[in-house]
């Protein structure tokens, strides 16, 4: 498939244990520009669907439990150059 944009990251907005013994996870995929958002979503949502399926499989294997994953894509211009954003995403340590 097509590659993803260089400046893309995922912020986990919700990670809770559900009543079925698995996890409900909401992820926000951040990109820099509208064109990148279209690239991540893909034609009729095909790319983000594939991303979600593969990510869910990996998480279920890692957690050894069922995972319900919801993903959204948001344009956040300049996130990769914003020290506060990088810190909140875990890319920069507090010194």
TrEMBL record:
Residues 1-77 form the KH type-2 domain. The keyword Mitochondrion does not apply. Coiled coil: none annotated. PROSITE patterns: KH_TYPE_2 (PS50823). One of its GO terms (cellular component) is cytosol. The keyword Cell division does not apply. GO terms for biological process: ribosomal small subunit assembly. One of its GO terms (molecular function) is GTP binding. Keywords: Ribosome biogenesis, RNA-binding. SUPFAM superfamilies: Prokaryotic type KH domain (KH-domain type II). PANTHER family: GTPASE ERA (PTHR42698), GTPASE ERA, MITOCHONDRIAL (PTHR42698:SF1). This is GTP-binding protein Era.
């Amino acid at each position: 498939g097509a590659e993803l944009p260089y400046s893309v990251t995922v912020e986990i907005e919700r990670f809770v244990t559900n009543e079925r013994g698995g996890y409900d996870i909401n992820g926000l995929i951040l990109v820099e520009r509208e064109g990148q958002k279209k690239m991540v979503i893909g034609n009729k949502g095909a790319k983000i669907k594939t991303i979600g399926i593969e990510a869910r499989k990996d998480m279920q294997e890692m957690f050894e439990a069922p995972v319900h994953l919801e993903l959204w894509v948001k344009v956040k211009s300049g996130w990769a150059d914003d020290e506060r954003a990088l810190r909140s995403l875990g890319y920069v340590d507090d010194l």
